[in-house]
Structures are given as C-alpha cells and as structure tokens.
Amino acid sequence: MCYSLKFYSNEKTYFTFFLRVVSLQNTTAQQQKRMLGDPVGVSLDFCDFQNTFFFADKLAAFDPATGKGKIIWKRMSLYTRQAFDVNTILPQYLQMLDFPETAYEQDPELGFSIDFVSLRTVRIKMLTTTVEPKPFDDPMLVGEPPHNHSWKYTRTASGHLYTSRYARLLIEENPFHITLMDASGKRLTDTWRWADNDSSQVKLLPFNFIKKGVDNSQEINPVFSLSPNEKIFGCGESFTKLDKHGQKLNLFVTDPQGPETQGMHKPIPFL
User: Fold this and answer.
1) Are 127 and 110 in contact (CB under 8 A)?
2) Which domain holds residue 172?
3) What is the DSSP string of 174-196?
4) Is residue 100 reached through a cis peptide bond, with omega within 30 degrees of 0 on the bond before it?
5) Could you give the CA distance from residue 131 to residue 111 in angstroms, rounded to a whole number?
6) 25 occurs within a structural domain
7) Does residue 163 sit in the same domain as residue 268?
8) Which of 112, 10, 17 is nearest to 71 (CA)?
9) DSSP code for 44
10) pLDDT over threshold 90, residue 250
C-alpha cells in the first residue's frame, strides 16, 4: 500500500513524500502446508542452502581384519553460479564457524564398517555422528545377519580388495570410493564422487550427509551409480510401473491406497 504525506510550510509550499508500507508475512506460512498422510520427501533437503553438507572424502583409518574404519567427511556448503542463461548449484569448501571450536570438528572422522553376510551379500554401515547407537532389535531384519569368512583380502596400491567366488569389493582410500564388481571384475555399482561429474552443466552431489540448519539433525544421501539399461525392482507396494528406474519413490506409510495414486501402504526398503 502507498500513502501520500504532505507537509506544509509558512510560505504555503509543500513537499510530498510517498511512504510504501509492505506487509511482511511469515515465510513459513507462505510455504505449502503438508496435510496429514502426505508423503514426506527428504530429497529437497539436499538442495537447501541452509544445511551444512559433508562429502565422503577419504579414509582416516581402516582395519582389514574387522572391516571397520573411519571416513573423513569434508565440510561443504552450496552456492549458486551463473553460466550464460543458467544458474547451477555447486559446492564449496566451508570453514567452520561453530562455537566453541573445541567442541566440533571441521571435517569429522566418523565410523563405518563392511560386513560380509554371504558370498553374494555385503552390508555397509555408516555413522553421521560420533555417537554409536546401542544394539537394538532392527525391525527391518529377522535377526542379526551372519558373517561369511570366505572373502579373501588383498592390499592394493589404492586401497583394499575383498574377493569371493561371485564378487569383488574394492575400497579406495583417497578419494574414498567403494566399487562392487562381479567375479570377472565388471563394475556393478560404485559410490559417486564429485570427480565423477563430467564437464556439463548438470552436476550430481556425491556420497554425502547433511546437518540440517533447522534442528541439527542428520540425513544421509548414499549416492551410487547405475549402469545403462539397468532395471530396478522392489520397494514394496507401488502402483507405478514395475521397473523403478527413473522414478522417485517416497517410502512412506499411509492408509490403504489404490491404483489411482502413488501412495504406499506397505513400503519395503529393499530393491
């Protein structure tokens, strides 16, 4: 709204001022509200400039006998770069401003482990905090997975190689990189690094986790590569096409759904 204010002097001249009054609304109220039962999609949190990003950078330590080690996570933030008529989001190294400095790490060293469940199955566990969770009954598992001792270990120039009759697992130290291959050495999948992006404008964030600016909670973004024409099946009840390649799935429990929606009543985090 605009108001015209007139101030008169003794000489009967006046000056006119325009006062613009802007109604400021709460930015939270302007955001779209989530209704009860709407899926919670966390993918947008990894585009939020308010969050602090930590990229899996390199190994700080690793014990081949136990498969346990520590990863150095590089502290990063996002910024906008303009290139011609396109704005792109890129990361940059972030110098910590947390106080007191002695209570926090600039680039935290956090634990991870590799467990060999069978000749075909590998379990990777990672922490996004220095606090290790106490043992508990995992609702995703019938019981604690067994440990298979058939995998053979070899030290390589870049890291650590484990081999079974059906597969190979390579853990590279610097930069941190996990590659899963078949018995012949063909790559099946690997963790995505920033260096794996090509020179195009489209950049994919690497294997990372975030500390959210709103509440300091952590969310992890385990980015793995896919091969061309690879097909993905699973994730429980879903009324979209069976091959999930190229789809975005929110594994979120809602009331029973029908084939006219993308909602799930029985999501299963397995693919």
Assistant:
1) yes
2) 45-131+143-221
3) TTTEEEEEETT--EEEEB--GGG
4) yes
5) 10
6) no
7) no
8) 112
9) G
10) no
